Amino acid sequence: MIRPLARGLTLAVLLVASISFFAARPMSAQTAPAQPAPAAESPGSAQGPVSAELHVLLQAMGIYEVLNIMAAEGLAGAPDLEADLFAGKGGSAWLAMAASIYDGDRMVSRFEAAFPAERLSAEQIATLAAFFDSELGQRIAAGETAARRAFLDTTIEDAASELAQRRAADGHPRIAQLTRFIAVNDLVERNVSGALNSNFAFYRALSDAGAFPAPIPEAMMLAEVWGQEPEIRADTLEWLFGFQTLAYEDLSDADLEAYIAISETPAGQALNAALFVGFDALFEAISADLGRAAAGFIAGEDT
User: Fold this and answer.
1) Ordered DSSP codes for the chain
2) What pLDDT sits at residue 61?
3) What is the model's pLDDT at position 81?
């Protein structure tokens, strides 16, 4: 599962959403940010560059619906970004730019273009599709997308986090299951790494686009972003437990064990990694777009 794209930045609020156990963020943990280098289909879910079989799998998982929820999250956070970086300078022009950056169809296209389909064999896609097309798989996907949409309301997100914290303090067995689920899919490290990479892309775009009087040295940007790691890690853990508590509340322990089991298979691990590659590329592109767009307002240009 991938956190929203708006919580890691010191300068802003970029988060990265969440979707099934396969989602989480970038492909692997790193010791520092990477160097440059409802039943009806949701908008933007028409088959694109991925194969028909893979499209069916992603649709069954709710990926396309989640992408559109993430677009709504990003657009909702645009005023906060303006308030943090260039209060009162953006107005309708900034909101129009944010709407273009967070366009659902554009996000789907970027995700599909970056998704490394070659990492999944036809047999693995078939195995995963059978799981997500099953009654259990559809309940899981529905719970995840419903929780993702519910988290658009921060009071619901806060309540879910508080419930998870109470259960952890009480030694509730569901917390132990969720902890295993997170570990099997490496959700903390993948999300933290992705948030750092996205934040670095944002800073770099700000600097390259002239937000500051002089370009910021890359080493300084890396140090600033890496300094955010402890806060991002703590926030990621809180978000993951809160989200999963809500998303899987209607699952029995046996249901969740089945989900953990398929996540441990070679097919589940391959899909998890591939999804992180796709989402990592998407979030870094969005972060860079936001940085370039914000730079003009920060520099006082007439945009």
Assistant:
1) ----BSSS-SSS--B----TTT--SSSS--SSPPP----SPPTT-S--SS-HHHHHHHHHHTHHHHHHHHHHHHHHHHHHHHHHHSTTT-HHHHHHHHHHHT-HHHHHHHHHHH--GGGS-HHHHHHHHHHHHSHHHHHHHHHHHHHHHHTTSHHHHHHHHHHHHHHHHHT-HHHHHHHHHHHHTTHHHHHHHHHHHHHHHHHHHHHHTT-SSSPPPHHHHHHHHHTTHHHHHHHHHHHHHHHHHHHTTTS-HHHHHHHHHHHHSHHHHHHHHHHHHHHHHHHHHHHHHHHHHHHHHHTT---
2) 97
3) 94
- Neighbouring CB atoms inside 10 A of 35's CB total 10
The confidence score (pLDDT) of residue 5 equals 63
Using 50, 70 and 90 to split pLDDT, how confident is the model at 168? very high
**Measured distance CA(186)–CA(103) in Å, rounded:** 29
